[in-house]
Amino acid sequence: MKNNITSRKNFLKTSALLGLGTLALGIEAKDLAEPKHLAKPSDNKPTNGKFELAPLPYAYNALEPFIDAQTMEIHHSKHHQAYVNKLNEAIATDSSLNTKSLEELLLNLSKVPENVRGAVRNHGGGHWNHTFFWKSMKLGTQMGPKFSTLATSSFGDIDKFKANFEKLAMGIFGSGWAWVVLQDKQLKIMTSANQDNPLMDAGKEPNRVPKILLGLDVWEHAYYLKHKNKRADYVSSFWNVVNWDEIEALLK
Ligand code: MN3
C-alpha cells in the first residue's frame, strides 16, 4: 500500500519554503526520542486484548457554537467507536498484537503482519487520531508562550503559522488530517490521507519521532452537518476550539 503520509522530503521542502529557523528553547534531542506526550492513557493499551472507547473529556455540546453537539455525538459514538471495534477485530486474530499499545503498533506498522496491517493502519490510526483530537479541543484557552515562541521562530509570526496550517488543511484531497508537530527542534505542519498519522513507521528513526501537538480531522463527517461543503469555514473556526493549554503541557 502506498504510504500516503507526505514524505519527509516534502516536509523539509515545505519547512524550507516557510523559512523555518533554528530554535533555542532548550529542547533536547532526548525529548524527541520518545513520544512522551502520549502519557500512557488507559485507552492506548488493550485491556484483555481489546481497546476501549474512552468517554469524551467534555459534553457533546461543549464546543458549541463552533462544533455542534450532533456532529460531536455522531463523530465520537459512531465513527470513533467503529474504528475501535474494527481495530479489535484485526488484533483479535494475533496474540502478538493484542497486548501491544497503540503507539507500539503504529510506530512499527511495517512489522505488523501483512494480513492485518491495512486494518491496523486504518482503524488503529482512526482510534489514535480521534483520541488525540478530542483532547486537542477546549473552548476559551489562549496560546501559551512556548508554542507562540516556536510558531514565531518557525513561521515568522503567528498569523503566518495559522495561514500555512489552513492552506495545507484545505489542500488535502479527500479525507485526511492536518498536523502540527515538533520534530528536529522545529515546528512543522504535516498532512496525511485517510487515518494515517505522523507516528506511522516513525519507529524506524527513533530520534526523529515527531511530537504531535495538534491534529485537525478534515473528513467530511467532522464538519458536514454544520458547514456542509465549506471546509474553509470549519478550518478557520477551528482556532476557537484549540486547547492551547494541552499543547503547552505537551511542550513541557
Ligand atoms: Mn473523524
SSE topology sketch:
Layout: H1 8-17, H2 29-33, H3 69-91, H4 102-107, H5 114-135, H6 145-155, H7 158-170, E1 176-183, E2 186-193, E3 211-217, H8 224-227, H9 231-237, H10 244-250
Helix pairs in contact: 3-5, 6-7
The chain binds manganese (III) ion.
Description:
It is a single chain. The protein has helices at residues 8-17, 29-33, 69-91, 102-107, 114-135, 145-155, 158-170, 224-227, 231-237, 244-250, and strands at residues 176-183, 186-193, 211-217. It has 252 residues and is mainly α. It has a 3-stranded antiparallel β-sheet with strand order 2-1-3, with helices on both faces. 36% of the residues are buried. Bound molecules: manganese (III) ion. Manganese (III) ion binds at residues 75, 79, 130, 217, 219, 221-222. Residues 75, 79, 130, 217, 219, 221-222 line the site of manganese (III) ion (MN3).
